[in-house]
Amino acid sequence: xxxxxxxxxxxxxxxxxxxxxxxxxxxxxxxxxxxxxxxxxxxxxxxxxxxxxxxxxxxxxxxxxxxxxxxxxxxxxxxxxxxxxxxxxxxxxxxxxxxxxxxxxxxxxxxxxxxxxxxxxxxxxxxxxxxxxxxxxxxxxxxxxxxxxxxxxxxxxxxxxxxxxxxxxxxxxxxxxxxxxxxxxxxxxxxxxxxxxxxxxxxxxxxxxxxxxxxxxxxxxxxxxxxxxxxxxxxxxxxxxxxxxxxxxxxxxxxxxxxxxxxxxxxxxxxxxxxxxxxxxxxxxxxxxxxxxxxxxxxxxxxxxxxxxxxxxxxxxxxxxxxxxxxxxxxxxxxxxxxxxxxxxxxxxxxxxxxxxxxxxxxxxxxxxxxxxxxxxxxxxxxxxxxxxxxxxxxxxxxxxxxxxxxxxxxxxxxxxxxxxxxxxxxxxxxxxxxxxxxxxxxxxxxxxxxxxxxxxxxxxxxxxxxxxxxxxxxxxxxxxxxxxxxxxxxxxxxxxxxxxxxxxxxxxxxxxxxxxxxxxxxxxxxxxxxxxxxxxxx
Length: 539
Ligand SMILES: [Zn+2]
Fold this sequence. Notes:
Structural class: mainly beta
CATH architecture of the domain at 401-538: Sandwich
Strand content: 25-35%
Mean pLDDT: 95
CATH class of the domain at 401-538: Mainly Beta
CATH superfamily of the domain at 401-538: Galactose-binding domain-like
Helix content: 10-25%
Radius of gyration: 28 Å
Number of helices: 5
Shape: elongated
Bound molecules: zinc ion
CATH topology of the domain at 401-538: Jelly Rolls
């Protein structure tokens, strides 16, 4: 009861999203509970195992349903399809897996989303390999009366002593979770009586069982027991009809998710896998979207399921079905784009806003694939509406247009002007811009103002990780500008010194100039790199 209460409370507060998990991109945090928050790969493995243990202890089917939900939807895309690489955070809505720092929207700083085969994700490397083996161990369980229970479903084979101690082997063939038909074939040296128990998942209203060609009573309970004499060659066919359903997440901006049987569905987004050089034999990847993703769904509120059309793709369920091109099934849906829904400056998807959402864009046919197949995905969708309750999506403020002589790929240029002020110059929990690994060089960062204007000061909060890394405040710096008309970069005439203090803003004032572009030039200290936590331009 305590475990059930804990589960309900965590999901209610931080898990109002599809995929069976909750936002914990290190910790659960108040105010960071939308579908773009991530869950650590370790958490998938550990919660699946917790659910398996609770199933064993309690016999309550709910835990098996919950385990399958995580195993089939959230866990697979935490890994690359070849299982060599993984990332730290998998999110219901995740449209880019790049290396840039997304703190503080994501709690941890640094690279949390690119796929790496190496130790950068610490704990997850050790946990991830246990996910499927633990799951496989719990497909079959022993029951009272020396019987067997099929507790969760996957292609498998079990050999066990049952009934009076006779050894039986049951061969389970199925395309589950992509299909609801599961066939069991029994082999044994001599016939034996024992109870065979089958789990009927909570999403299945009525299950059909056929034993050796003879239809049994349709089953609406959660467990069904066939206590009979089984013989070599017996066949049992279980059919779990899968229906399309939608879920509205009222506590998460009334976003909507789409389900069929144990699978949740995501928008299919084109994936561009870009290898990055980690100087090691197995590749690491960033993944970028190649097709639009900012869709809201058009759903018939009287009959939501009728808004989707299920079909098979013609691809047979293979060894690794959890990748977009291997998805054996899909849903056709209708949607409209929401042009104001954009990525934030750090590459993170803009947070979802309250549905229904108004859109003047054309209706488009879109494809949904199983969430587990999608490394890039929208799973919590806005719902398109045109009634009086439909809302206009609020645009994000325009991003500062920044460029630099160089930026470390795991940092971000945009972090230099994201409005987030660090606790100190070594604060690793907020985004930063650095010229790493350039050392002792002359570098610059430039800001193209949205509108040319008169400026008279700049404030710079330097990054300096003395004691941890090799970034320091610069040896010296200057501010330059270009007017709207263009021409060469000109140094401002400063009326106060160029400061290089740590742990606060260094404000330089200068004779006002009309600027269209502003540039900071730095000379890095010999042997050291450097960077900027935050930069402000003033009157
Ligand atoms: Zn971990």
